[in-house]
Amino acid sequence: MRNIEIRRVNRLEAVDSRGVVIVIDVIRAFTVAAYAFARGADRLWLVRTVDEAFALWEREPQALLAGEMRGRLIPGFDFNNSPSLLAAADVDGRLLIQRTGAGTQGAVNAVNGSHILLCSLVNTQATALHALKLADTTEGIVTLLPTESIDLTDELSEDNICADYVEALLRGHANASTTLSENIARLEEAGRFDFLKLGDPDFPIEDLAAIIDIDRFDFVMVGTHKQWKDITYVEVEKRNMQDVLVSGLSF
Hints:
Elements: E1 5-8, E2 20-24, H1 29-38, E3 43-47, H2 50-59, E4 64-67, H3 83-87, E5 95-99, H4 103-109, E6 115-119, H5 124-134, E7 141-146, H6 158-170, H7 176-189, H8 206-211, E8 219-228, E9 231-240, H9 242-245
Parallel strand pairs: 1-7, 2-6, 2-7, 3-5, 4-5
Antiparallel strand pairs: 3-9, 6-8, 8-9
Helix pairs in contact: 5-6, 6-7
């Protein structure tokens, strides 16, 4: 295992991220992003505000708008923040412009990272593998950026639990998967997923299975900061893991 330095910051400290930055949003932005790519989406543009989303849509009117404001579908958007909805959507070859209250904020604000990777529970192993490879170019510095909880001591934050899983994988801990399963059970017992069980169309029960489908996807989501007029956004592309796997890295 290579020598790596793992840092962790919260969403308000995103600008302090350095090296390989793994931006984490489990419920639900980057779970949505992963299912969109699995359905054939070409690219994602991540933005901070609704106005920025519409401005970029006017630039690219064939794009689809996805995201939420306080968890709800934004008027004029094509999709809310539901991974199960994206898993059934026809987005093949399309550009999606995504705005959420946590994940996209952290990604856009992480302007000082050398590499930006988007992560949720559905693509954690692939992300960690790619981060290990990229760490060779950043003097071993990896920053974990869980975006859901500002309090880094909140053990029941799903994003911090995902960050713990990433860190365990990066450090080669043999019990990484077992610990993750135990932590997800703790989240369930604490009622973290109860809001998905109320029959609300913005929070469908089907999202739960989509969110906790651990390592369903073997691709990484790689972001690059872009500038258009006064808008800073992150362009995200899907990259398959074949090149990482043939390099000999494994968990």
